[in-house]
Amino acid sequence: MKPINLSQKTDWHFIDQVREESGQNAALCYQCGNCTAGCPYTHYFDYPVSQIMRLLQAGQKDLILNSKSVWLCATCEACTTRCPCEIDVAQVMNTLRIMARRENRVSEKDIQKFYDTFLGSIKRHGRMFEMGVLLSYNLKSLHPLADADLGPKVFLRNKIHFLPKNIKGRAEVAKIFQRFAEKSK
Amino acid sequence: MAGREYIYYQGCAQEGTAQEYDASLKLVMAKLGCSLKEAEDWSCCGSTPAHTVDEVLAAALAARNLAIVEKMGADTVTTPCPACLTALKTAHLHMGRSQKFREAANALLDHPYNCTVTAKSNLQVIYEDIGLEEIARPVTHKLPALKVAPYYGCILNRPPGVAQFDDPENPVAMDKIMSAIGVEVVDFAFKTECCGAAFGVAKRQMVNELIYKVMTMALDAGANCIIVACPLCQQNLDLRQSQVNRTMQSDFNVPILYFTQVMGLAYGMDPKALGFGKLVVSTDDIIKSRVSVEEFEKRQKEAQEKASESQKEIKES
């Protein structure tokens, strides 16, 4: 990583904002590295999770919100479980993900598309429609044949439905999303 | 506690790719004297995707179901899926801790949730409420060919403040259930490593590498099959095993079973009813190796007699 000039580039507001939204005090982190040591995804991260925590202490908003790490974190909770300072690290990562989304800085578009397709399915049917999510994601992500090799395996075993199961309360579920959208305006 | 009725939150996967988990779980629970009553018109818990958008939205999606359970007059809900469990428990804890948060989540709902429902995984119910003694009682068959690696995955026991069940670093519930029904368990260090979870579709290569590590560790520990309590772990390890072999130049052929399927086998249940036909990697050898307890004891006795006879012969000569 390149040197960072802290006197010029510390975003104090960002530090406060993350503390408030996540309910976690990143200042407690003393860089023991336990979170990174146990993180199964660290190999894929651009900044290991302990570095994200350090960058957060230094108010490095741009580096963090544009990073791949916040989207490649799968919330497996190893970091949270093992943090000696009892920081809910996975919660911090989650807050950073939400903020990156809000500011339109999502680095891993495919992951976001998969999540959004999943939520669209819930909004429409009340439950997740596996087949619909897969097909719709493949179209949106421009990987039309992703996982096509698995198709015969699930079809032959009748493991997947071709039609969604619409629940009675699906309008009620759609309303959760609508009310949320109205409140976020 | 036998004879108890539980409100059952099935979860979306159980209707589709994890049908065999649902089927085997219902059969085993019934055998153990527990009935499962489906939560009325339940909806999706929101799972991981909702948490990347907003915490209040995520809580509301899960809490709609908790409010349904409340309305049904129950204080406990049980679910087989760790992702559903985490969503339900996180919503409950968060809404219980902060009135402001509860009001915000309830404002998105038609029927408010009053924070009176405890969510438990079916594994927890079987292990804690029913207990090992009751679990061992219906056993009619032995599975001498099996050496299982119990794989708990990431969030079934983590973080401890949310999961509040078993040990977050070295969970043992499945290990002990397997031992109670007479199945051999291996000591498996990757019990709680993440399999790649929901990244299977969007980040396939990454997930293949993670699965490869988990499977290699299980085989190195001496296992010949892996048991799971999570639809996503099962799907990644079983359905994607051929992808892993292709991309990692491996040669895995490891059956991935739900722990309830193994229990059902030991209880003498029909493998087809337990959903064995839905598993991708063949389990024929496991099913064929099943013997009744009487037959197993007879064989053991014969083997012992043979051994003592040959020892006698050695001594005499």
What do these coordinates show?
The complex is a heterodimer of chains A (185) and B (317). Chain A is mostly helical. Chain A is built from twelve helices and no strands. Chain A has helices at 6-9, 12-22, 34-38, 49-57, 61-65, 69-72, 78-82, 89-102, 109-125, 130-140, 151-156, 170-184. Chain B has 317 residues and is α/β, with parallel strands linked by helices. A four-stranded parallel sheet of chain B has the order 2-1-3-4, with helices on both faces. Chain B has a four-stranded parallel sheet with strand order 7-6-8-9, with helices on both faces. In chain B, helix 1 (19-31) links the parallel strand 1 (5-8) and strand 2 (35-38). The radius of gyration of chain B is 21 Å and the shape is globular. The termini of chain B are far apart. At the A-B interface, helix 7, helix 8, helix 9, helix 10 and helix 12 of A face helix 2, helix 3 and helix 10 of B.
